[in-house]
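Hey, quick one: can you model this chain's 3D structure?
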Amino acid sequence: MAWISATQRTPLSSLLSQKAGQIESLRRQLEAEAAEDAEAEVDDVWLLRYVLSFESRPAEAATAARKALHWRHDHRELIQAAKMRRLPPGLSMEDVQALQCMLVSGFHFTTTFGDPVFVIRAGQSNQSLLLDMVGEDKVELWMTYLGECAWQVCEAATRRNGYFVKQFTLQDFASASMSQDRRFFKILGRNSKMNEWLRPQFMGRAIFFNTPTWMSLAFAIASKLVSQKFLSKIWVHRQNVGLEQQGANLCPYAQQLLSADRLPAFLGGTCACQEHGGCVNGMLNSNFGKHSVDDVASSPRIILPLLRLPRCEEIEKSPHRKPPAPTPQEGGVGDEVVTVSCWRRCCLRRRPMAASADRAGV
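Sure thing. Here's the predicted structure for all 362 residues.
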């Protein structure tokens, strides 16, 4: 298993040793595809992702890996755009202005393990208006592009640090409306299912904050459209957080992954990102309204969600990241895992029966 938990991670070297036979078997099954594309990166770490995510299902692992190789061959321009942090083919700067104005979501630094943190302000996003403006295809392309940017960071950091680095998503539902656009749910569903075969071992956690009373209904809808693996990674923060906390009583779970100055103030941290106008896409942390069509033209003509996402070359050139120090409550760190302490009294899995997700290596 890649993660025993979000704060306990098996060293990559141990996993590669344990799964050496399965990795070699999968490599042989992909020889034809790898030979066809000289640029295909089919190394042990990449193969390990499929071995872990499709444990005891070698045929499914090979099918998923082939599908990913074909996708990457066909989308080389998008992959290169993500690497260079430039506009992906199919999106204009005017499209991006609308996308980042109406979807208030973006990367906000990394965890203590180096995991990219993606913050979503659901209550301040206007999915229906955006879909009416640019259409489903461009919204889906935007999500695919941002996912590719984060995937490349996770790949680089995993190899640099020697344990699996995955994306964390922090979603704030403050002021969110019960009226949700089914078109957007379908896009989320397709995106989450694509990640299963294109980016295995990519999603680490999705933690929901300030969840409304209608959240159970939203889950009922999402469960029919979104990947079950993704649903199993959702945790819910049980206490409401907001600007009034400003770092006080920071979630014990979050303390092990983020410092208060790296957590947005509207999630209980102390970060305001004043130099950028706010922690997410230039929206003030104190703004709990929605943007309108009139706001799009004034959106900066840069890719705002990527401002705080480290570049791969920075990760590759940086000193090796040491594992976070254990807290006094837990004592030393064992040789077999990279670990820090974790309390379970604040953030709980949405579905306790899904607690096997970590151990299944998904």
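One thing worth noting: The CA atoms of residues 30 and 66 lie 7 Å apart.
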